[in-house]
Amino acid sequence: MITFGFSLEDPHEVNQAKLLVRSLETHFLIGTEAQILFFTPTHHSIDVKGMERYHRTCDVPFVARTLPFAYKVYAAAALEALVEGPLIWMDVGSVILQPFTIPSTPEILINPVDIRNIGDLYPRPRSAFWSLLKGYFDLPHPEAPVITRVTREEIYSYFNMGMIILNQNRHCFALATQALDELLKQESIHQLIDTSSRHAIFLHQAVVTCAILKCYPTSSRGTLPVGLNYPLHLQEKIASPLRLPQLVSIRYEDYFETHEIPLPWQPLFGDLLNNSRTI
Predict the structure, then answer these.
(1) What is the pLDDT of residues 41-68, one digit of tens each?
(2) pTM for this predicted structure
(3) How far apart are CA 118 and CA 222, in angstroms?
(4) I need a labelling partner for 175 at 20 to 30 A (CA). Which of 72, 120, 134, 265 fits?
């Protein structure tokens, strides 16, 4: 059985969670071929009425609570501890648009980041931020580069956490939470993230990247099938965007605040997003 997992921390994400659950229930036989488990932090009270059967809580250490999006890593680790696999970790701002079959290999399927952001260009020397993380994880040299999915830049390995498929559970999220626990007690990391909001925002994803590099050798990693985890919110920046029928799952973020919902998607989206117009 496939397990789909995600997390939410903000009450404003509840409608997103309901839309994601609705899309999963629409395209998969929940309870037979798939299950859903989503997590909220124990220190937050969030009304998840109508989704209680899928709901779990997870602890987020006090030291990590002010770090943007760190709760996602602790939630993913909680899911990982409950399920041996296969499992699919998703961002709450995602929608499944059509059913799909998970490739049985490789062990992990994950895409590079869409935009470089805090990634280091290849083959330039590593930044102080990434050097600190690489030293903590004792990652080997040299590294293979990846190409960002939207801006098409060559950077050192840096993965997107919007969707991760694990066919083989090597508990990389548990390793990532352990790293966050220890790194956030060090002055060196605070000197970096306190002076850079971008490093603070993306620290969780960088740590997960390092944990994946540590747990999964290159030969066991692959990219997601075409159409999965499509960044709809970056549509205007994509040189060759996919057509609607090619999209299998999307991340939309603020896209529908300024764009109308395509007519074929209206039955699925319903009234769960603020913008319910159709085109």
Answers:
(1) 999 999 999 999 999 999 999 999 999 9
(2) 0.96
(3) 22
(4) 120
